[in-house]
């Protein structure tokens, strides 16, 4: 009888490992070097910060379990935070992710947390332990272990450390270096035996340094061979292998703050992600874990709550056949089917890549998640004889999907596509105010993935055609220099969708009227009329009258009028000298304005704004102003267009200068002088 025993022995390489990490951050031990930070009230990295991460240190190490004979993952973390203001107290709430799959779940094995305060010149500490941690289920894949640091107030320093034991050696979790408060030091190490081949990818805009080294390790396999009743021989076999140490660290990482025209800010956070390519254990064939998108597409097509739902669509046949019976044009068929599904199934406000219930049930009950609504739309379009297919995407609030990151878990929504007249038409029947090729704004998030056996490819959902708005305003200035205006606004496509959400979805006329008044120096607004249509294109119309208090400046015989009646842009949204994040306008647009100024008798026009025209290279953005004088009437036409939706940080200076010029041009005044003897 032979019984194998496993013993792990590490080669004496510790000194080699750490001498190679010449710039390794100096992280104090738990409970050490506290008082110097209790006495600080501001940090040079950000004098306006309400809290600062002093350091955040983590290690993910794939280790060998000598008792059970398998590798496991051990995750340790030690984080320390200084609270600078009352607003910074909110950072006392922390959570630890614990992943699970079936009956296998990550386990929080060690935990300590301490808050330090300075009272009467002495350091007072408050501690909590594992009993203070509450686990909360987020999904069937994830729990959070939540805790609140005790006695945290302005001036506190708190720290915590923990260890998580995991069997998921095939899934190293990402490390995030940046948050909404600045971080002085973020330091992350991964320790990976040669049997696991991981790729890593650094993303974000901060300088994260990386170093690597290797250490030699030994697993000793010992066995006992019984020869007689109480005797036998012990034999040993050593298996040598290498472990790679990867160290990532960053210093003085600024807070990640929202900047104007930024989409989901988490798309730009500095982090490192890992993907297991394959394993290669001794005596075993290589096992690949890396997916490609064609494999991911097949997975979706074979999934019972996705592709298989499109195989049982007979329940739609009679109704859809009747609906399109007299339609010979495929575009008309598409519009009829889209309208039918949009009216028939009300979206339950839950985004999902997969159907929770059968699409037949959603159709009959008139309610479903986004997958049920739009998979039903795909099925109905196919019943109408159209070449239709699902398109998987990630919504703006969910973050970007990268082509290099093959993961179905990044998607949280599905829409419908149809191939018509050589073009792909996109549709989302969850929208209250949406038509083919005008998707809800939440869907405009870069690229999406077509899911079809013969058409598995990426599609760019960013609109190419410009959405327009036309604003016609008649401004009257009476002899008492009171200013009033009548406004007629028309919005199209995505401009209409934006306005529709503000007026008809929010459905608060009083709030909307107040927003109109705010544009006109809080003057009275009357006779507000709004309307909307979907065909031939989405359109919203707004008409109203307004009084404009302080609508001009009167000094002696001189009168100065700033054009725009409060409707033109007057402030540059880009005020920072530099910018790290891209600028995303989400869709191209053209805003047209016509102002007709009826000026009072008894005044002479002394000066009017000059005609102006300027643009960014390649027509990425354009500004035009034309002025026409006819007696005491001044007509001014403005056109502002942004034709490129995404601008890189390197283009920030150009964009900022464009808006500086725009604001300056909008500020040029009409100057009047009272006629002699009047």
Please describe what this structure looks like.
- With 678 residues, the protein is α+β, with helices and mostly antiparallel strands.
- The chain is 16% helix and 42% strand.
- It contains ten helices and 38 strands.
- A hairpin with a 7-residue loop joins strand 16 and strand 17.
- The longest helix is centred in the middle third of the chain and has 15 residues.
- The N and C termini lie far apart (121 Å).
- The N terminus is likely disordered.
Strand order of the largest sheet: 1-14-15-12-2-3-10-6-7
Return Rg in Å.
32 Å
- State the separation between the terminal residues, measured CA to CA: 121 Å
| Biggest sheet descriptor | 9 strands, mixed
Shape: globular
Strand content: 35-45%
Provide the residue-averaged pLDDT: 91
Separate helix tally:
10
Task: Give a brief rundown of this model.
Helix content is 16%, strand content 42%. Mean pLDDT is 91; it is low at 1-22.
List keywords for this structure.
single chain, 678 residues, alpha+beta, 8-stranded mixed sheet, 10 helices, disordered N terminus
Note the topology.
Blueprint: E1 2-10, H1 14-20, H2 35-38, E2 51-65, E3 70-83, E4 93-101, E5 104-105, E6 107-119, E7 122-128, E8 134-137, E9 142-148, E10 157-166, E11 175-176, E12 183-193, E13 196-203, E14 209-226, E15 232-253, E16 271-279, E17 287-288, H3 293-302, H4 314-323, H5 330-344, E18 346-347, H6 359-365, E19 367-368, H7 370-383, E20 388-393, E21 413-420, E22 423-427, E23 447-450, E24 458-460, E25 467-477, E26 483-492, H8 493-505, H9 509-519, E27 525-533, E28 539-547, E29 553-555, E30 558-561, E31 583-584, E32 589-598, E33 603-607, E34 612-615, E35 621-630, E36 633-642, E37 646-647, H10 652-666, E38 670-674
Parallel strand pairs: 2-12, 18-19, 25-32
Antiparallel strand pairs: 1-14, 2-3, 3-10, 4-5, 4-9, 6-7, 6-10, 8-9, 11-16, 12-15, 13-16, 14-15, 16-17, 20-21, 20-23, 21-22, 23-24, 25-26, 26-28, 27-28, 29-30, 30-38, 31-37, 32-36, 33-38, 34-35, 35-36
